[in-house]
Amino acid sequence: MRDTLNRLEKVIAERRGATADTSYVASLFAKGREKIAQKLGEEATETVIASLSGDPAKLTAEAADLLFHLLVLLAEGGVSVDDVLAELDRRDGLSGIAEKASRTE
Ligand SMILES: N=c1c2ncn([C@@H]3O[C@H](COP(=O)(O)OP(=O)(O)OP(=O)(O)O)[C@@H](O)[C@H]3O)c2ncn1[C@@H]1O[C@H](COP(=O)(O)O)[C@@H](O)[C@H]1O
């Protein structure tokens, strides 16, 4: 998975400067952070709907759209795939229940 995400991250960075007419990635960057974030929200909703349909193929396709748009939003925000994976690695072994209980607020 890491290889695939890193490869796609590289493609997204390369396509960032392309012409919006010929590159979907470039067209997203041209629309700006708000639009990219909105698109990610739409893809998240479509993923939820697909999960409820009980069709694994639909869920797979929507999850791929979701991950792709997340990578574009991360690139726009200056966050790398390695940053996110390192954060997940940091949490390895820390139960979500224990983490929530340790919060002061
Ligand atoms: N992985 C993807 C990828 N996944 C999804 N999409 C596009 O994401 C869009 C989302 O589809 P939707 O139906 O939800 O949206 P839409 O109706 O087309 O768009 P809206 O008008 O609703 O915004 C579609 O146009 C898909 O083709 C992707 N577009 C590009 N990539 C990767 O990015 C690379 C560079 O793409 P270009 O920048 O287009 O060259 C490609 O080689 C791929 O590796």
TrEMBL record:
Pathway per the UniProt entry: Amino-acid biosynthesis; L-histidine biosynthesis; L-histidine from 5-phospho-alpha-D-ribose 1-diphosphate: step 2/9
**Enzyme Commission number, as recorded:** 3.6.1.31
A Pfam family for this UniProt protein? PRA-PH
Q: Which residues form the signal peptide?
A: none
Query: Does Hydrolase show up as a keyword for this record?
Result: yes
Reactions catalysed, as given in the entry: 1-(5-phospho-beta-D-ribosyl)-ATP + H2O = 1-(5-phospho-beta-D-ribosyl)-5'-AMP + diphosphate + H(+)
| Any one GO CC term of the record | cytoplasm
Q: Which UniProt keywords apply?
A: Amino-acid biosynthesis, ATP-binding, Cytoplasm, Histidine biosynthesis, Hydrolase, Nucleotide-binding
Spell out the subcellular localization from the entry: Cytoplasm
Molecular function via GO: ATP binding; phosphoribosyl-ATP diphosphatase activity
Q: Name one GO biological process term.
A: L-histidine biosynthetic process
Xref: InterPro entries: HisE, PRib-ATP_PPHydrolase-like
UniProt key word Nucleus: no
User: Which family does the entry's similarity section mention?
Assistant: Belongs to the PRA-PH family.
Protein's UniProt name? Phosphoribosyl-ATP pyrophosphatase
Please tell me the species this chain comes from.
Answer: Sphingorhabdus contaminans
